[in-house]
From TrEMBL:
UniProt protein name: Multiple inositol polyphosphate phosphatase 1
Similarity field: Belongs to the histidine acid phosphatase family. MINPP1 subfamily.
Signal sequence annotation: 1-18
Organism from which the protein derives: Papilio xuthus (Asian swallowtail butterfly)
Chief subcellular location: membrane
CDD domains reported for this sequence: HP_HAP_like (cd07061)
Keyword terms: Cell membrane, Disulfide bond, Glycoprotein, Hydrolase, Membrane, Signal
Keyword Signal recorded: yes
GO cellular component, one term: plasma membrane
Amino acid sequence: MLLHSLFFFYITFNSSLSIIIEDISKHLGTRTPYRFKYNKEDSKIKYPHCKDTKIWMVVRHGTRLPSAKDILGMNSVLKDLKHEILFQHRIAKGPLNSEQLDDFEKWSNNLEIEKEKFLTYEGQNEMILLAERTQKRFPNAIKKEYNNNTFEFRYTATQRAQQSARYFTVGLFDKKISQHVVFAPATKIDMVLRFYKHCDKWQKQVKKNSSTYKEQKIFGNSDLMNKTLESVSQRLGLNRTLSLDTVILMYKICGYETSWRKNHLSPWCYGFDRNRAEVLEYYIDLKHYWLDGYGYDLTYRQACILMKNLFERFRGDGASATFLFAHSGTLLKLLTHLELYKPERPLTGDSMNKGRAWRASDIDCFASNLAFVLYKCEDGDYVLTLHQERIIKLPMCDKELCPLATLWDYFKDSIHDCDIGDICRLN
């Protein structure tokens, strides 16, 4: 059944009752497809008496394949569950219609463990199109002709980041020229793009600290979550209630398969309506808020290294176009360092904060990006910030086009004190 995820879609129950189920494809957390989030307006961004001269951009890799753990889960847990769903419908006439059951019949997993987290074809397209739109908006900062002195490309030592960078250059130039682009050597220990991976203090006090996951655990045991698990099970026609781990796996695979196939909704999405998807979305947001966001000062203090890199490029004579390809953890910590999307109160597991600004589906979907553009104006240097290709106003600025001096004054202390060795040292 072909479902267009931008609009309401219909599912017909066997009881002949047709109901409208709201779109869930925009509420799939960090696996939300970027094609539902990007800014389609790509005309040149102009300001009177100003000229775009430099750009510095951090890009999360494009849509990828699942982890080895999730691929194994698909091969065992979901494979068995598929057969259970089909069996229950044969004997009890469950609520899924014939087309949905046909989708389950056809579903299989042929992913290779060796290709875990690899960039997908959709991820390649995301990068090409992102590059094309970005160049259209800032044609002076991003020249059409490649020059090793004016462009800087850097990626982490992962296939998905490396390939994202490669396809991004295809969008900027063309396939032939992109083969001659010089990339900064990727290192296993990368203290700029994956600083947190090698921060011993953060690893111990945050990532491996059970308190970090306390609120998520509380929400996972809540009445709302229990009702969600019951609802998902009933929607699939099961005579038992699925575990939280199984429903989370379904939710993740729903996101992956919907992301990497255009005009397609994974059959594992059939267990959710928008309300239930939003419950699972909040469950995931609780993890990222406390692990990658505002939960601990140490988490976002580390991101000073990225701000330092930004100001070095904008205040120096090096490359005019810098593109850094990294990961969800990198981007979320930088957004937090910039004081963006901060909830009025910390996210907790005792109730669901529906109006929160911190929503991974919006701020950290596949191919998420954050760009700073330096404008040389008659009255000085200014910086324009874009997130998901949309202009945003930084909290410390009065206007969207913010004086470079204002940003420097605001961040100079954190940059001056940005000794990662000291910040990450275990006492």
